[in-house]
Amino acid sequence: MSVLNEILEANKGYAKEFGDKANLAIPPARRFAILTCMDARLDPAKYAGLSEGDAHVIRNAGGRASDDAIRSLVISYKLLGTKEWFVIHHTNCGMEFFSNDLMSNLLASSLETAELGAAGFKDVGQGPGSNEGKYINWLTIPDQASSVLEDVTRIKSHALVPASIPVYGYIYDVSTGSLIEVPEATKVGQAR
Amino acid sequence: MSVLNEILEANKGYAKEFGDKANLAIPPARRFAILTCMDARLDPAKYAGLSEGDAHVIRNAGGRASDDAIRSLVISYKLLGTKEWFVIHHTNCGMEFFSNDLMSNLLASSLETAELGAAGFKDVGQGPGSNEGKYINWLTIPDQASSVLEDVTRIKSHALVPASIPVYGYIYDVSTGSLIEVPEATKVGQAR
């Protein structure tokens, strides 16, 4: 079965058991938002105990506080009333394994998927590639405690973020499923 | 109990039953990515039938193909091998209920949460606000079929996206839990 058909089949089952979820309100019932990584191994609803209707979940490569994540967070509190936020990066993140230069070189070489070997990512595709990758900041992560601290700091110091919103910094451990605090980040992120 | 403690408590339970999820690989096992909205009522793992390790999930306000979503999608295929993508917006999205001008005016008036009345969002907070909101494109959604089509079109025509990746366009119905195809988008999004 194709991925598309698998998804549609799974969705039919979900819709059949949908029940009273039709009555959920737009504003998150538990009034918080999580910013985390797109990584396939992470299921924020499961690792943080969310039901439908509870919280906003924002995800991108790395769980970074990009301009777009800030756009989403500002909409989250200003229009939909969230009152606290969580930045959750994770161990063994793909964003640790490359640099801006490597990524733009790989894309300049070809648009096909690179191979990950002992020496790192290597392009094995057929060209043409594109130089457009040189104009993107890939927001790679040298180490998670630093990236969580940087992102909580960026959010807290943004002109559109009220000082009253606490931002908590955590790392999700993909080998145990546990959330581990980054105390320096939570300290920077406390409500004032 | 505070939200933070509730999350940590739920996480303890998840970690206790973590089992063999520690062995999941970084590349998504089912080789696809979903771009969808941060809305609290949406649980993509549930509505599309995903287990941990299956697929990348990218979420922002609206599920829009922002530059940051494109950054994430390019990392998803180039380094981690996804081969097909889904853009899934939804009915009754908060992004339908305001405009760029309204949002920047609300933020200029105060940073507190606005009130939603019969006449739309209204600022009831105490100033000061900030003019920084005028420099952000909020990527609002006038109607979902158009926004899905726009976003699939933007992704398919991006210089870093290989023509071989099909992009499917769907709307999630928050009143039934069902995925509804946007045929024009899927047509634009087919692999070439």
From TrEMBL, chains A, B:
Broadest EC class assigned to this enzyme: lyase
Cofactors, names only: Zn(2+)
Co-factor remark: Binds 1 zinc ion per subunit.
Catalytic activities: hydrogencarbonate + H(+) = CO2 + H2O
Keywords on record: Lyase, Metal-binding, Zinc
UniProt: Zn(2+) binding residues: 37, 39, 90, 93
EC number: 4.2.1.1
Family: Belongs to the beta-class carbonic anhydrase family.
Protein name: carbonic anhydrase
Organism: Acidithrix ferrooxidans
